[in-house]
Amino acid sequence: MRALVRLYQRDLRETFRLSIPIVVAQLGVVLMGVTDNLMIGRLLGAVPLGAAGVAHSVTFLIGSIGIGGISIVSALVSKAYGQHDTAEIGHLFRAGIRVAWLLSGALGLLGLLVVWQFEFLQQTPAITQLARPFVLILLLSNAPLLVFMAIRQLCDGLSRPRVAMYITMSALVLNAFLNYALIRWLGLNGAALGTLLARGYMAVAIWLYTRQDNFFQPYLEVVAVPLKGLILKILRLGLPGGFQFFFEIAAFSLAVIMIGWLGEPQLAAHQIAINMASTTYMMATGISAAGSIRVGRALGLGSLPAVQRAGTAAFLLTAVFMSGCCLLFLSANEWLVSLYIRDNAQVAAIAASLMIIAGFFQLSDGIQVVGLGVLRGVSDVNLPTLFTFLAYWVLALPLSYVLAFPLGLDVVGVWIGLLVGLTVSALLLTVRFYRKLRRLRREGLKA
């Protein structure tokens, strides 16, 4: 028993060590949006804040397919690293960058279609007018973000996540400075331009770093081979992961649209609360990424007990972290809202009530994203994609609509529906991981 405890202590420690820089990097990416909203809310008011919220939701929804799709590369790199296959790692790196450019182009065209038909979202005229050019600029910023994410997969898969962490945090500072200057000069669109410039810096910085650090040279100097097969493999395994991400983000983005039908105060309040929840969620995705990398490494070594310990450690870490976030949201909801807005009592009151619900779904949100990560580590992507579709689109969104409109619970009803969807997803994905372990044992993975 003591030996088992020591084993899990080691796995918890290693997962924690790997996840911290990934969490910081993930937090830096989402904090760019938080920075935008903080400055827009303070400098421009509730209506521009609502427009920025819709624009960020739409563009992040579109980009989520690419971000989720690229994320499979770190697990594949980690598995190849466990097998000591230097050439495969180098080929995955090159193929990942090409996939990033392919997805950037395809998703950019999709984004242009959304901008053209923006009235379909049925937002107020003021929100539509402000959000449309904001979306166009953010769509451009998705290209350097995906290139950054593709190069980052090499760093994370080789357990060198600090590279991306330092670059992301420096980009966050740059984004804040650019936002302050450009919002005062260009108004709302200045915030979007600041994000574009900061993401461009991220892509260039990580590209230069990997080429100057001797650690990465063996993987960058492998003999070039045709990459069509690897590109197709990344797309085959990555796109289901991208749609997993998409289904959840889409649920929240469509929730923004529904809330926009309720009115501008509700939309601004939702944007405040969802920014806080998105921050903790992105930190949980860091633990998820670490779990995916460690599970992939264990799979490459051919050790079933190591796969189980790596996955369980990720679940335990996120349970502890998100429980702490839950207590913070429940006990300091009004203070957290005051960081965003102080001169609109109606918006602040609605946002404070939403923070209570956000507190309750912290644990479900963390567990479900870690479930997706550890399943990605064993290349199990198809059934989890179906789970997320059912939980968010078949259950959460219809329930949100019924609670908000026919039953008259307003914006609180939308959030209760989302809570139910997250909880169902967390249960299904956790059960799936441990059933997958039993299947790997039957397939002959070393016990």
UniProtKB/TrEMBL annotation:
InterPro entries: MATE_fam, MATE_MdtK, MdtK-like. One of its GO terms (molecular function) is antiporter activity. It is found in: Cell membrane. The keyword rRNA processing does not apply. It comes from the Bacteria. It is a multi-pass membrane protein. The chain crosses the membrane at residues 16-34, 54-78, 99-118, 130-151, 163-182, 188-209, 237-262, 268-290, 310-330, 350-375, 387-408, 414-434. The keyword DNA repair does not apply. GO terms for cellular component: plasma membrane. It holds the Pfam family MatE. Keywords: Antiport, Cell membrane, Ion transport, Membrane, Transmembrane, Transmembrane helix, Transport. One of its GO terms (biological process) is monoatomic ion transport. PANTHER family: FMN_FAD EXPORTER YEEO-RELATED, MULTIDRUG RESISTANCE PROTEIN NORM-RELATED. This is Multidrug-efflux transporter.
